[in-house]
Specification:
There is one protein chain. With 184 residues, the protein is α+β, with helices and mostly antiparallel strands. It is built from five helices and nine strands; from the N terminus they run ββααβββαβαβββα. The protein has helices spanning 22-30, 44-61, 109-122, 139-147, 179-183, and strands spanning 7-8, 12-15, 65-70, 76-84, 94-100, 129-135, 151-152, 158-159, 171-178. Strands 1, 2, 3, 4, 5, 6, 7, 8 and 9 form a nine-stranded mixed sheet that branches. This is GNAT family N-acetyltransferase.
């Protein structure tokens, strides 16, 4: 077991999961707008499993998907963080993931949380690179990643394993950010 990191940004706490987070997570993952670029909305059991996996990842690695909490009112607004990627890549690499409730969009909170996670990745964790994947049609997600300095690798598009080739979400784009590029 390693030391678990809890992070803070100007307006957010990136913290370990609380049991009370399940109901707001279920609402988040049932929202068709939030889940627009995911193959399916998640059930209560899916959300509970995400919390368990996230807690275990945090325990084993010191980082993972953190619950996002607003500092001003303590509200759970989603999650953001890093997990060891299951993508077929040559090296073990952390993958950036996030989801935030619609009522908190347009305030820069996702970007703030992602920047905090990346700062941890390249600082405290000493990682060499971080990747992220979004569907090719997910323009808001692509803009976020490019705004964070991540660059797409057009040669590394791939089909989502859980989505049929005819589905608009099938084609995924891999983004990368290396530590040296982050420093610049």
């Amino acid at each position: 077991m390693v030391e678990r990191l809890a992070l803070e940004s100007t307006r957010l706490r990136l913290r370990n999961w609380h049991d009370e987070d399940l109901d707001p997570l279920v609402r988040l993952c049932a929202d068709p707008e939030v889940m627009r670029y995911n193959p399916a909305r998640w059930s209560r059991d899916d959300c509970a499993a995400l919390m368990v996996r996230s807690r275990l990842h945090l325990l084993r690695n010191g980082f993972g998907l953190w619950a996002l909490e607003r500092k001003d009112n303590g509200a759970f607004i989603g999650y953001c963080g890093l997990v060891w990627s299951a993508l077929p890549l040559p090296n073990a690499v952390a993958e950036l993931r996030w989801a935030v409730a619609c009522e908190h969009w347009g305030q820069g909170l996702v970007r703030e949380a992602a920047q905090t996670a990346l700062k941890c990745a390249f600082g405290a964790l000493g990682l060499d690179e971080v990747v992220a994947c979004v569907s090719q049609i997910n323009e808001p997600g692509r803009q976020l990643l490019e705004g964070l300095g991540m660059r797409p690798e057009p040669a590394t598009t791939f089909g989502h394993p859980d989505v049929s080739p005819e589905h608009p979400l099938h084609t995924q784009v891999l983004y990368r950010l290396r530590r040296d590029d982050w420093r610049q």
